[in-house]
Every structure is written in C-alpha cells, then in structure tokens.
Design goal:
It contains three helices and twelve strands; from the N terminus they run E-H-E-H-E-H-E-E-E-E-E-E-E-E-E. The protein has 172 residues and is mainly beta.
Length: 172
C-alpha cells in the first residue's frame, strides 16, 4: 500500500523506508519530536479534519510499550471521531468504540467471538441481536467482565448502546 499522507515526528521513519518511492510520493506532515500528542493522535486528528468516514488503524497493539498500546486504544474516544467508523485491527480481530446513542452492525460467521467492554463507567441500555447470549437494555458495569466472549449465532449481529462508552471487539 502506498500512503497518501504520513503524519508524525518521523522518529521511526528512517533508513531505507524513507527512500521508498511510495513514501516519496506521500504528503508528509511533520511535527516536532517534543510535542503533547502521540503520532497516532495527530494522525487521527488529521483524518477527522479531512472528514475521513472510515479509519482503520493497524499496528496499534504491537510493540513492547504497554503505555502506547493503552493510549492507542483510548484515543478512539476522541470527540472529533464521533460519527466515524474507526477500527483497530489486530490479527483476526477488530475493535471499535460505540458511544451512547449509536448502533453497530457486525458481519461474520456463527461462533465468532464478540466482547462488549464498558469504558470510563457503566454502559447502560445495551441491546444486542444475533448473539448467543442477547442483552435487552442491560447495564454492563465498568470494571467487570460480563460482556466478554459472547458469540455470533449467525452471520449478522448488532449492538446498540443508549448511554456511555462500549468497546465492541469482534474476532474469529
């Protein structure tokens, strides 16, 4: 894949990769190394400012830095990302943040694992369809594991949230 835009301080964009023709054609938005945001936060802000409808994040959970991994996951709560489909993809899994008043449709296979994890407080009014253990306007409590490891009962499922924030993790 050839990037259209490369955003960040370029501290890890060195050596042979910087000389690749694909990178040379990209628009580079360079920031100073001493900054208040991570490169991913800057890239997400750039995508939101340029009205991206869908954002797919790769590599956000790799590496050896637990602080970066947690920060990358929490960045999906940025207010500027509301109303956009933002996915973190890792292996055979996709994670997205559902905000109060939103609904997400999932497509997959029977037996696919779907976990629902509240973020920053309780997730209220959680309703699901197409899952083995459905919920009907239930509350998932922050700091508890009740929403982990549900399964798709068919090829389609959906999750609706009335209030709060809810991680939806879908994997094979």
């Amino acid at each position: 894949l050839a990037p259209d835009v490369i955003v960040g301080d370029m501290d890890s964009f060195i050596g042979p990769q910087r000389d690749l023709p694909a990178a040379q054609r990209a628009h580079i938005v360079q920031h100073p190394r001493a900054k208040d945001e991570t490169d991913l936060e800057l890239a997400l802000a750039y995508a939101a400012e340029h009205e991206a409808d869908e954002i797919v994040i790769l590599g956000a959970l790799g590496g050896t830095r637990l602080d970066h991994m947690l920060s990358n996951v929490l960045l999906l709560a940025m207010p500027s990302l509301r109303g956009r489909r933002v996915l973190i993809v890792h292996g055979g899994q996709e994670a997205m943040l559902l905000r109060g008043g939103e609904v997400v449709a999932l497509t997959g296979s029977p037996g696919d694992v779907v976990s629902l994890l509240p973020l920053g407080g309780d997730a209220r009014g959680v309703t699901t369809a197409g899952l083995t253990w459905p919920l009907a306007r239930d509350t998932l409590r922050f700091g508890h594991s009740r929403g982990v490891s549900n399964e798709m009962s068919g090829t389609e499922a959906w999750v609706e949230l009335e209030e709060g924030y809810l991680w939806v993790v879908h994997g094979t």
